[in-house]
């Protein structure tokens, strides 16, 4: 019963990379699920396997050098082993993703409008005019002023924060059932961070999107996540409801992570300023 309600169900996920010493495990035996309208926070120190996990879910790892085993079910449909052509239909439409560095997500030689409209039209039967209208409406929802002007601009003409919001607008406009957000605020200045996080929160509430939020900022995780999974050396060592995890961490590694965090995170400080 509970399983049916999960948007994404991951079981026994293993990722290994080819090396001179043979296959080297990067991620081992992961099991987690994403529920509609809920945020699962994925935390862990640098190199613990968070990005590899998100890339494995999106089937974006290089198949020649990496081996992905296990089950990744989206609404009960197995993604692991799907052909690239089928995955292309799923990425962006059913699973949106927001990457660490927004500049890398755009092609420098095309305008924002071009890239936005093309993404919409690849996945829908909308006319060009309808796609432009949808793109503009989505940019407006991200609190971006003068969206028609932004559509005509090139990526380098926008600040990192604006580009990040454009990327979120693109990833959310087709109302995907899952969004994978890998350090969505890392590249942003403090003022834009909270705005972007609020938008993510608003959109999951409005669209019922299930979100995997990867962040090293425990302040961000404590504010947004419903559940938290802690990764260490490629394994999930603890997974719990956000309150339980922060108040009663069980695993020594989780305790260390919590002890190492600054007393006030950037976002908590910012919340105070905003109030
Ligand atoms: N293409 C690759 N080939 C070989 N090893 C890789 C590759 N990409 C990542 N790794 C290794 O996999 C491990 C997990 O990396 P990953 O990027 O997932 O960590 P992370 O938790 O996302 O770290 P960060 O918080 O710094 O982004 C690391 O040991 C990393 O060196």
TrEMBL record:
Pfam families: ABC_tran. Keywords: ATP-binding, Cell inner membrane, Cell membrane, Ion transport, Membrane, Nickel, Nickel transport, Nucleotide-binding, Translocase, Transport. PROSITE patterns: ABC_TRANSPORTER_1, ABC_TRANSPORTER_2. It is found in: Cell membrane. The keyword Cell inner membrane applies. Residues 8-258 form the ABC transporter domain. Its main location: membrane. It is a peripheral membrane protein. SUPFAM superfamilies: P-loop containing nucleoside triphosphate hydrolases. The keyword Nucleotide-binding applies. GO terms for molecular function: ATP binding. Belongs to the ABC transporter superfamily. NCBIfam families: nickel_nikD (TIGR02770). This is Nickel import ATP-binding protein NikD. It comes from Planococcus shixiaomingii. The gene is nikD.
């Amino acid at each position: 019963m509970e399983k049916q309600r999960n948007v994404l169900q991951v079981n026994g996920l293993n990722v290994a990379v080819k090396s001179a010493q043979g296959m080297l495990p990067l991620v081992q035996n992961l099991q987690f699920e994403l529920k509609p309208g809920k945020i699962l926070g994925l935390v862990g120190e640098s190199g613990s396997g968070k990005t590899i996990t998100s890339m494995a879910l999106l089937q974006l790892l290089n198949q020649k050098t990496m081996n992905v085993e296990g089950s990744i079910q989206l609404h009960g449909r197995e993604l692991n082993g799907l052909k690239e052509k089928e995955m292309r239909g799923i990425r962006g439409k059913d699973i949106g993703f927001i990457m660490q560095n927004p500049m890398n997500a755009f092609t420098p030689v095309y305008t924002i409008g071009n890239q936005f409209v093309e993404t919409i039209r690849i996945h829908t039967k909308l006319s060009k005019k309808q796609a432009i209208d949808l793109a503009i409406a989505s940019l407006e929802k991200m609190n971006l002023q003068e969206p028609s002007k932004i559509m005509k601009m090139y990526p380098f003409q926008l600040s990192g924060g604006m580009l990040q919001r454009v990327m979120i607008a693109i990833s959310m406009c087709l109302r995907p059932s899952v969004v994978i957000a890998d350090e969505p605020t890392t590249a942003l200045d403090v003022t834009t961070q909270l705005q972007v996080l609020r938008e993510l929160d608003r959109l999951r509430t409005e669209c019922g999107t299930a979100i995997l939020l990867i962040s090293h900022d425990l302040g961000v995780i404590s504010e947004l996540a419903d559940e938290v999974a802690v990764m260490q050396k490629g394994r999930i060592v603890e997974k719990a409801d956000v309150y339980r995890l922060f108040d009663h961490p069980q695993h020594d590694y989780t305790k260390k992570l919590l002890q190492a965090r600054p007393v006030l995170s950037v976002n908590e400080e910012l919340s105070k300023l905003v109030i």
